[in-house]
Design a protein that fits this description.
Elements lengths: L10 H13 L4 H14 L3 H14 L6 H12 L1
Length: 77
């Protein structure tokens, strides 16, 4: 497995990360490894918007703004 080295981490940040790891009963290395895996697995905001644009392009809404507001108002009554 590849190794990643992060240099010049401020001591207070390293200490805060180590404290978070300790609260979870993990080593700092394990905490950071899992954090990186989780972070890399989540889509970025840009990716989420791109997926939404593609879905909208593939199947545009047939509801007009007026219909949406009419349905909203009917639900409130």
């Amino acid at each position: 497995m590849p190794t990643i080295t992060v240099r010049n981490v401020p001591p207070d940040i390293r200490d805060r990360l180590a404290a978070k790891a300790a609260l979870r009963g993990q080593s700092l290395q394990e905490f950071l490894r899992l954090y990186l895996i989780e972070s890399a697995s989540k889509p970025t905001v840009e990716e989420i918007f791109e997926r939404a644009r593609k879905r909208l392009d593939a199947d545009p809404s047939r509801l007009t703004t007026e219909k949406i507001l009419k349905y909203r108002d009917a639900d409130r009554e």
